[in-house]
Specification:
372 residues; six-stranded parallel sheet; 16 helices
């Protein structure tokens, strides 16, 4: 089968976490013998920012790391109807231009023999409802949302048909423990600042606890879009800020540190409970102990207190980080349990299995066979 993915970018993960998941899904499809190709708009803001920040070397590194992944850039003159006409399944990400979302829907509605899927991995369904409500999804066969609360939002609003939950997951071919890597630091957090959606939380659950744990605490932050005041706060707390990191380099970064934290964005905590960031799946897949700021695991994705620890506030985050750093047995138990849950339930292999089950269960074959 041929899968065609419309994404904001495959080659750039600069402030673009969906690229992590998409790469893992495509790699697993290819491993199973399917064709998987991405289309991305020329001049996407993620790729443009990556080039400004890191230069062409970052693009070269992507192709070296993922030699079997292929992406084609499209512009205004691109023949989308011809492209989708060769595909069995077309998956369109929520960041795709609304006019193109509608155009692809018309291609399906006018007799296209592909299965058309809309994929939402953002909070705009609650934070910018008008944007999602305006999308022309009536000819889309399937809608995939990365959390049950988001699925329920689509169903209540009547956006699309055949709406399913399809959580993100870890590409465990990439994200895995590296026990032989020497520890260089204590705490690492990998996450972007981004639109003040968790600025207060970063202060409460990262900056203040790191400061309280003392001058010998070695804390590192990797990510982008940190404003001057945020960088100043990190410096004052003695935290090392090292900017962007390629997602393929994250497993080693986790391996070089003793503990990490999870800080969800406020719109998910308040309006879309049950949806962690993809970094949580990836961190646990690397076998690093994790302490999380509050979020409500409404779907039971993990075993709180066993796979990771919950901190209700900054004081508790400080205490739990101290516990993990001082108790090797506790740290080892968390790492083992979290890794077990990922390998049992939350890899990209699991999500590809789920995707095939969704495609086949509803008979949306588009006159072509949907099976491995």
């Amino acid at each position: 089968m041929k899968f065609l993915f419309y994404t904001h970018s495959l080659v750039s993960d600069w402030n673009h976490g969906n690229a992590h998941f998409l790469r893992g899904i495509m790699r697993d499809l290819i491993r199973r013998g399917h064709d998987a190709v991405a289309l991305e708009p020329a001049g996407s803001w993620s790729r443009d920012n990556l080039l400004r920040d890191q230069g062409q070397g970052a693009i070269v590194a992507f192709h070296r790391t993922f030699p079997r992944l292929h992406s084609t850039s499209y512009d205004e003159g691109f023949e989308h109807e011809a492209a989708v006409g060769t595909a069995d399944v077309v998956i369109v990400h929520e960041w795709t231009d609304p006019a193109l979302v509608a155009r692809l829907g018309r291609a399906r509605g006018q007799g296209g023999r592909f299965i058309l899927v809309f994929h939402d991995t953002h909070h705009r369904a609650v934070s910018a409802q008008g944007d999602i409500a305006a999308l022309a999804l009536e000819d889309y066969d399937i809608v995939l949302t990365f959390g049950e609360t988001l699925r329920e939002r689509y169903l209540r609003a009547g956006w699309g048909r055949n709406v399913f939950t399809w959580h993100e997951a870890a590409d465990d071919a990439l994200f895995r423990p590296m026990p032989d890597v020497e520890k260089k630091g204590d705490l690492i957090w990998i996450g972007n600042w981004g639109d003040d959606e968790r600025s207060a939380e970063i202060a409460s659950f990262l900056i203040d606890p790191s400061r309280r744990l003392g001058p010998d605490m070695v804390t590192t932050v990797r990510g982008v879009r940190y404003p001057a005041q945020a960088l100043e706060a990190l410096q004052e707390a003695g935290i090392n800020y090292s900017g962007w990191i390629a997602n393929a380099e994250v497993p080693r970064a986790f391996a070089e540190n003793r503990v990490t934290i999870h800080i969800p964005r406020r719109p998910y905590v308040e309006a879309l409970p049950g949806i962690p960031t993809i970094r949580m799946f990836e961190a646990l897949a690397c076998g690093i102990p994790l302490v999380s700021a509050p979020w409500n695991d409404t779907e039971g994705l993990f075993r709180a207190g066993k796979d990771f620890l919950f901190a209700r506030d900054g004081n508790e985050m400080t205490r739990l980080l101290r516990d993990v750093l001082s108790d090797q047995s506790l740290a080892a138990d968390l790492a083992t349990s979290g890794l077990e849950t990922i390998r049992t339930r939350h890899t990209c292999r699991h999500r590809v299995d789920e995707l095939f089950a969704i495609l086949s269960r509803h008979g949306l074959t588009g006159e072509r066979e949907v099976a491995e």
